[in-house]
């Protein structure tokens, strides 16, 4: 399944009023939204979602930030969705992100970088399943 990816419009983007503009970028880039939820993650959810980064120096700050306010989680569909979405969002550090990418235009800092994108098909499947049941996705309704 290489046509799905998982995205988060992170709390900084929501707080800064960029939810609508980022959704517009998603639609303009021809991703099909299979599922979307506005949630506020608990600290435990954020820790579970980013478990791969446990032990890294930024883990504490990252999980505190991700549970600091509302965010939108999305399941997206497009051909080669993982790669296409990583290209649309740009480099992790907005200072390195290419012009026209979401992180270049909307990120606050390396930590508060507006959006998340899965890094592989395998992780996309896991990350979608972390927040959505299959039955909740439009493709299955
Ligand atoms: N992050 C951070 N400092 C770092 C690296 C990452 O605060 O030095 C945060 C940032 O929010 C990033 C997230 O941790 O988006 C996950 O890091 P990863 O390396 O997986 O980057 P991504 O896949 O989000 O581009
Ligand atoms: Mg990552």
Task: Outline the structure in words.
- The protein is α+β, with helices and mostly antiparallel strands and 141 residues long.
- The chain has a single domain, classed as Alpha-Beta Plaits (2-Layer Sandwich).
- Helices cover 39% and strands 17% of the residues.
- The chain has 7 helices and 4 strands; from the N terminus they run E-H-H-E-H-H-E-H-H-E-H.
- The protein has a 4-stranded antiparallel sheet.
- Helix 3 crosses helix 4.
- The longest helix is centred in the last third of the chain and has 11 residues.
- The radius of gyration is 14 Å and the shape is globular.
- The chain binds uridine-5'-diphosphate (UDP) and magnesium ion.
- The site of uridine-5'-diphosphate has 9 residues, from loops.
- Uridine-5'-diphosphate (UDP) binds next to loops.
In summary, what is this structure?
With 141 residues, this protein is α+β, with helices and mostly antiparallel strands.
Tell me the layout of helices and strands:
Elements (H helix, E strand, L loop, with lengths): L3 E6 L1 H5 L3 H10 L3 E8 L3 H7 L9 H8 L4 E7 L3 H9 L12 H5 L8 E3 L3 H11 L10
Helix pairs in contact: 3-4
The structure holds uridine-5'-diphosphate and magnesium ion.
